């Protein structure tokens, strides 16, 4: 049995435990649920996870959509991203991790580092007030927009073509530390995909190796940090379970039906929306401060 298969089995056991914790929390607060935006949020989850599977990313799309429609409170956005998208990302990981071969030790250590980083990050983010969350989300969107533009234009590390299937020695240490930091940033709304691909390419690995690292890291870290957000009550309880199901449907459609799309123009549009949304977060934070 390969390391990827073992990781997937453990991942789904962990995801099942995570889902039980989530359902119990939602049921315990069933009388407090505001379902007015549930349909909209569920649709956004389907769309975001569909494009996530095709490589654009889900966090920035969902964050922008929720901000524009005010369908998720600003202080609940980081937690909702990690709780609602955790299981759809597990579906993504199942599709990709079985298709691409890479060094087992590199994969396991980089995923473990991301998990530890996410648990630490969730404890920090879940305790921030609304103004700080808005600033963090604004900065996150600007960073993601810049990295995304570099990615689609093959700028910087995205123009490097590596061949390695894994890392050794000092390079492995650098990769593990980098993924630990990305795990922390993931809880603040900075998607792990594009930054992780940049690191993989900078360290000389093949571009396709980024996919099991990215998907595997997210599939483990979202439920891991999601449990913290659930215990703190820092997520949108009403919409999360429906978003899990529609998000998984979006992943399956992209993974097995629509396997590729001409996404360049759409990606540029998403970057513009991210910048506008970041400005909105900064403006709201400034108003609150005043």
UniProtKB/TrEMBL annotation:
Swiss-Prot/TrEMBL keywords: Membrane, Transmembrane, Transmembrane helix
Regions crossing the membrane: 6-27, 39-61, 76-95, 107-125, 131-150, 171-203, 209-229, 241-259, 265-282
Keyword Membrane: yes
Cited PANTHER family: MEMBRANE TRANSPORTER PROTEIN HI_0806-RELATED (PTHR43483:SF3)
Protein name: Sulfite exporter TauE/SafE family protein
Organism: Claveliimonas monacensis
Lineage of source species: Bacteria, Bacillati, Bacillota, Clostridia, Lachnospirales
């Amino acid at each position: 049995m390969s390391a990827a298969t073992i990781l997937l089995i453990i991942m789904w056991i962990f995801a099942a435990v995570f889902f039980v914790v989530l359902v119990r929390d939602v049921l315990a607060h069933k009388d407090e649920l505001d379902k007015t935006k549930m349909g909209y949020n569920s649709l956004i989850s389907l769309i975001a996870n569909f494009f996530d599977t095709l490589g654009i990313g889900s966090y920035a799309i969902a964050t922008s959509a929720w901000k524009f429609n005010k369908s998720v409170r600003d202080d609940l956005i980081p937690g909702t991203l990690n709780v609602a998208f955790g299981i759809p990302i597990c579906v993504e990981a199942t599709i990709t991790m079985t298709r691409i071969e890479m060094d087992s030790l590199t994969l396991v250590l980089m995923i473990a580092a991301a998990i530890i980083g996410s648990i630490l990050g969730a404890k920090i983010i879940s305790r921030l007030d609304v103004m700080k969350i808005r600033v963090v989300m604004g900065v996150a969107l600007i960073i993601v927009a810049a990295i995304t533009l570099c990615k689609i234009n093959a700028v910087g590390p995205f123009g490097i073509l590596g061949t390695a299937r894994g890392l050794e020695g000092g390079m492995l240490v650098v990769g593990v530390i980098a993924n630990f930091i990305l795990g922390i940033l993931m809880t603040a709304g900075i998607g792990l995909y594009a930054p992780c691909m940049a690191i993989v390419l900078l360290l000389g690995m093949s571009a396709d190796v980024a996919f099991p690292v990215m998907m595997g890291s997210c599939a483990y870290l979202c439920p891991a940090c999601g449990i913290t957000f659930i215990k703190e009550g820092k997520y949108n309880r009403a919409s999360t379970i429906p978003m899990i199901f529609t998000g998984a449907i979006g992943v399956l459609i992209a993974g097995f039906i629509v396997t590729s799309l001409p996404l360049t123009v759409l990606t540029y549009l998403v970057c513009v929306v991210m910048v506008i949304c970041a400005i909105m977060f900064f403006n709201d934070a400034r108003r609150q401060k005043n």
